[in-house]
Amino acid sequence: MQRIEEIYWLRAYGCLAVFSFHLLDHLNQRLDTLTTDLARIPTVLGTPIFIFISIFLFSMRYGRDIPSGFLSSRVKYVMVPYLVYGLAYAGAEFLRLRAAGVDTGLLETLREYLVYAGWHGYFLIIAAQFYAFYWLHGRFDLGRWLPATPWLVIGSLISMAWWGYWQWRSALPPGYLHWIAPLGWLYLFFLALVLVEHYRDRPEARPAWLVALARPRWLVGLVALVALMSVPGWLEYSSKEVWVVPLFLLFTLWVMNRLRGRPAPPLVRRLNEFSFGIYLAHPMFFNLVDTLDPGQRLPLAAYVLVLIVVGMAGSIIWNLAANRAHWGGLLFGKRLRVA
């Protein structure tokens, strides 16, 4: 399959977005202002980017000719790290709460993390579901009943309605159960299929609506509106918000058009190699910094710098070391081989 340069850019951006989102979580412990709220806007696209990339690449590579063993091989590389890191994060949280005098049982903590997906690895459950959906879509030719373009519109409305419903509800399910439901992410599946369908079209042959929405003015206008609504504090910031759906659609259409064929530099490719490992491990190193600085003695600027350096370098070194072992990539996040 040809190298799709814009995917390298998108994956690197998604990695940095997730990293920055959690970095801002730690920063908010000391500083919570409109500036930090505005800084969150570009970070909310991180999780959707990884789901979109998976479906886009599968569809480009396989189409409906899905190879034997596809589902089992893909699912194991997300679900085994889900269990390994889920156990590690649950154990660390149990010890933290116990040290703080909070009487939370180990079994309850494990259930919160592993059954209710109450940690950032909830993304892996979503990915596994969409791997299965892609397999079903190809094997049973569901495109006959679910044409990509109409279902991009329908799926976007369903996803926005899903997130709107949970923003309206005061009672939430335990953990992140409402986050891992595929309804909230349906738009990503059909966006990937639409872009694959028209990827090799000549510019003049692309649908007018696709060309129009890829123009930057729509993205700039929406970002300006989101920023304006942030001033009175009307918005929440995560990838599970109604306004993120149109933001992601416009952003992805623009990026895929703007960066098409533009070679990714070595640093971007390097980030791609370790993106999965960084995603999984960086909160572990953020928490290590907080553990070693319990009294918040570090000045704010130094604290942020240490979080960035330890979080990024620690995650990369950890992933490098893990992938040296035969089963390391399967257990702790496989390192991508970037050509």
What are the main properties of this structure?
single chain; 339 residues; mainly alpha; 69% helix; 0% strand
Provide the structure class.
mainly alpha
Global Rg:
20 Å
Number of strands: 0
Shape: globular
Largest β sheet strand count, sense and barrel closure: none
Q: What's the total helix number?
A: 15
Strand content: under 5%
Order of helices and strands: HHHHHHHHHHHHHHH
Spatial separation of the terminal alpha carbons: 12 Å
Unreliable runs: none
Percentage of residues in helical conformation: 55-70%
Please tell me the overall pLDDT.
Answer: 94
How would you explain this protein's 3D organization?
The chain has 339 residues and is mainly alpha-helical. The chain is built from 15 helices and no strands. The protein has helices at 5-27, 34-40, 46-62, 70-99, 106-115, 122-139, 148-168, 177-180, 186-197, 208-213, 216-230, 244-258, 266-292, 300-322, 328-332. α1 runs parallel beside α13 (266-292). The mean pLDDT is 94.
